Structures are given as C-alpha cells and as structure tokens.
Amino acid sequence: MSTAAAAAEAGQQHATAEAAAAAVPPAAVAAAAAPPFDFAACIPRFLHWVDFCNSGAAAAAADEFLLLTVGGSAVGFLKPSFAERLLQFPDVFRRDGGGLALHPSLATQQQRTAAVAGVLEVLRGEGLIEGWRNELYPAVRAFHDEPAFLIERAAAPHFGIKAYGVHINGYVTLPDGSKELWVARRSRSKPTWPGKLDHIAAGGQPHGLGCMENVVKECEEEASIPTELAARATAVGAVSYTSLQPAGLKRDVLYCFDLELPADFAPRPQDGEVEEFMRMPAWRVAEIMTTSDEYKENCNLVIIDFFFRHGYLTPDMPGYLELLRGLKSGDMS
C-alpha cells in the first residue's frame, strides 16, 4: 500500500470512529472532557441490574420447575406445562420422581441427541420453539462435563439447561491512564434486543469450539477485528445469573474477556448483527447504565465486572461487597 493510500485509510478509520460517535443519540453522547463522576452513586442502579438478571432465582429455589435428569444427574429445569408436553413423547421422556428423565433406552449421547432433536422438530413445527439458530449447545451439569446430549440453542431456556457464552470488553487506554470502551449498537432488525447497546463482540459458546476460538470468531464476525489482534484478548473471569423468561429458566455463565485495542483502531460492523460502534469514556458508559435501559441487560453485569477490575469501584463504596457477590449469583459450575 502506498504512503498516500495508507494515510487515506487511516484518515477514513478515524473519520468512521468520529462519525459513529457523532451518530449516538443525546442519551449516549460522550463529553469531550470527563467531568467529576461519582461511581459510588451508581451502585444502587448496578444492583438493580443484578436483580433484574436474576429474576428466576426465587422460582428455581421454590421448586416451581421440574428437574430434568439423565442417568441420575440433573441437567435442566422444566416448566410443568412444558414437561407435560414432553411426556407425550414416551420413547424419549418419562416421569422420574417429581421430575422427568430421558428414557434409559437412550444409552449414548448420540442417541439422546437424535431423540431430543426429533422432539424439537415437532415442537418447532407447532411454533413452540422459536428463533431457531442451527447451533448446538451441550446439556451439562458443569462446563467440563461430557454432554448428556446436544440441543438446539433456541430450546435452551425451554429445557433450563446451563448456557455459556463469551463477552468481550474492547477498550482503549488514553495517555492519562483513563479508559474508553467500545460500545456496539445492535441491529434494529435483530429478533432479540434490537437497537440495544452491547459489547464490542459476544456470543454463545457452542459445542465443539474452545472459548478463545469463539472469542476470535465473534470478534472477526461482529467487529472485523483481525485474528492477530483478537487473539490478544485476556480471560478475566465470569459472571452468572438465573433469569426467568416466558420459555423457562435462562441459566447463563458468561466468560469475560478484556481486549485492549490500539487508539487508532476502529471496529466495523460485518455480519449484520451490529448497526454501529461508538467509543465512550468509562464514566459515560456507567452513566448510561445508571440512567437508562439502553444496554442489553446482561451486558451490564459484564461491564460492572470491568469496573471492579479496573478500579472504578472500590471497597470504601457502600454496597461494594453485595454487588461483587451478586455478579456470581448463578450456578458457576
């Protein structure tokens, strides 16, 4: 590439980032200079997001759902009405104490996967399972267990299986040491959370793919981040929650990654899932989370974790330990 062409491309990247920031509605415009900002005052609202994402915890604890077991090991939670529908497939499901179990004749993972897939095709045809993704999730008690069976992602909350994902905080460190986060606005045509603010990249953790492989894949697909740059992402922990949805229990563990990006790099939408990217000071992101519901709800937890780890939230702030504990409210196995 010629020097002139390189300069032109760099200028266009900078212009893209500036244009994206200018396109943000007033509720999400970052001021040029950071005003004094009280992160301690954000904690009550941050606790609200923890409670919101854990709307299913009480229902699970109160035995409002039926256990789904395989070989005596619990892998899911079923709404009673959904369990009754599954019992209409007696070659696949049967009663087991107060819950349901896969039929013992389904002795292998492959047999169970095929049998459950056949049931799901019927339920999909009835309109009971919506948002089909053609992506398989493992039904497991814990992340490193061998899956009891594999199941279509769209059916995960119906079966109350644990689902895992990777969420990436893309950020830039300024010369003064302050940090700015790259924020994505989800496409308004997406069937889930259209137009909401999101991380630079994130995705469910499918079967057969390593977490770091998934990080690199999602960064490239959603934000056009080159492999060599995405591979710098660092695993920094996880958050978990149990959410109550119309389909059932959404039991999620989100693996958190930090990706420090060069100041002159600007992500670009690629796969149609993101409408635009904006770079915002950390304080402005916290302000949006505190004063609006612009963010996809579970993203708030991952960003709160970022604030803890980068020193924006400190032990002298009231509610610090309660908030820290709340980020891991779900089953972390």
Automatic annotation (TrEMBL):
The record, for Pfam families, names: DUF4743 (PF15916)
Annotated PROSITE patterns: NUDIX
Leader sequence segment: none
Q: Please list the residue ranges annotated as the Nudix hydrolase domain.
A: 163-303
Gene Ontology molecular function terms on file: 8-oxo-dGDP phosphatase activity
Which InterPro entries did the record assign? Answer: DUF4743, NUDIX_hydrolase-like_dom_sf, NUDIX_hydrolase_dom
- CDD domains found in the cross-reference section: NUDIX_Tnr3_like
Q: What does this protein do?
A: Probably mediates the hydrolysis of some nucleoside diphosphate derivatives.
Name it: Nudix hydrolase chloroplastic-like isoform X1
